[in-house]
Write a structure and sequence with these properties.
- The chain is an alpha+beta fold and about 80 residues long.
- The protein is built from 2 helices and 5 strands, in the order βαβαβββ.
- The protein has a 5-stranded mixed sheet.
- The protein starts with a strand and ends in a 6-residue tail after the last strand.
């Protein structure tokens, strides 16, 4: 399956990219993706963030589909 990963905020610096294309047949859920990211980018494990798939917030049990766009969203604040 192919995914587009879009980090936001400090996660962009952690991943050293504003976007990543990933093809991996072993990643089926957000939990699988999280494990892949924390193994590939260990510094990301120290950061708090949530996942959105195709602009909808999801939990770690969400099943991914080919072509999904996955945003990594750190806590936001503002006014």
């Amino acid at each position: 399956m192919r995914f587009s990963i879009l980090p936001f905020g400090a996660l962009t610096d952690t991943l050293s990219a504003s976007g990543i294309s990933l093809t991996n047949e072993q990643i089926l859920t957000i939990e699988d993706l999280h494990q892949y990211l924390t193994t590939t980018y260990p510094a990301i494990a120290q950061q708090k963030f949530r996942y959105a798939v195709n602009q909808e917030m999801v939990d770690t049990t969400h099943h991914l589909q080919d072509g999904d766009e996955i945003a990594l969203l750190p806590p936001f604040s503002g006014g």
